[in-house]
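Form P-L/3: holo structure prediction, ligand magnesium ion.
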Amino acid sequence: MEVITVANNKGGVGKTMQCYQLACHLAHKGNKVLVIDLDSQANLSSTFGVQIQRTLIPEWLIGDIEAEEVIVQVDNGEEFHENISLIPASRHLANLSKLMILSEAEIRKSAGRKERLLKIRLDKVAANFDYVVIDTPPMLGDELIMSLVASNRILIPTQAQDYSIDGLEELMDTFEIIKETENPKLKFNIIPSMVNTRRKIEKQRLSELSQSFDITPPIRNLVQMQESISTKRPVFMMGKKSKGQDDYKKLWKSLNL
Ligand SMILES: Nc1ncnc2c1ncn2[C@@H]1O[C@H](COP(=O)(O)OP(=O)(O)O)[C@@H](O)[C@H]1O
Ligand SMILES: [Mg+2]
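OUTPUT (holo model):
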């Protein structure tokens, strides 16, 4: 089982888009995919057509309930949806850090440190899934740290204004700390996101970024990407001449996914 987290402490950079396209792509290829929405805004859950009153993620993490009780089967009418299981979020998840403080003694007994909670839960379901795809909120909080500890790799969608080491500094620092302390095998990929290739300044920044980091092929800023979300259809269903489909094909190939 490979665990992939999509992360950036900035909002609106295309994290949820990335998770949606990746999960659908992997499921379409025949993989069993567990999608975990760790953002209390629950955008990924609603893109999969799932809206719930109150998420049970905190109870699952703490160990009060089993994975089967938080997992929802996704069914939007397409065959590949059968391969997708979703752990949905709700607004309630915004209280995760507070809830974990309340259960501190319990957590210390079962996991040692709260950072390891998600990894411990995922190890238990490793036999049931080929991939886990995790969407995270736009901040360096418990959700992101737990995901980094539990992951094999982290995909970082990045927009032009942040194409500098400075823009990514906080996240990269956190990545390094997790790698040194909890997860030495953690890898990362930087994905230029919502790129406008006609703008000279963006091209220039892209080439600067590629001097500091190994970056993947870019995903362009395209109206059809927004349509993909609003119509709940992944880009691979959008016709052979779709630019979005082209971009994502190149991206998955470069990532061996
Ligand atoms: N490649 C793209 N082209 C055009 N619009 C995009 C693209 N990627 C994401 N968007 C749109 O930009 C907005 C923010 O993307 P989202 O994935 O929700 O970001 P995040 O999860 O990082 O906050 C959404 O409205 C989304 O539909
Ligand atoms: Mg999001």
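COMMENT: The chain is about 45% helix and 15% strand.
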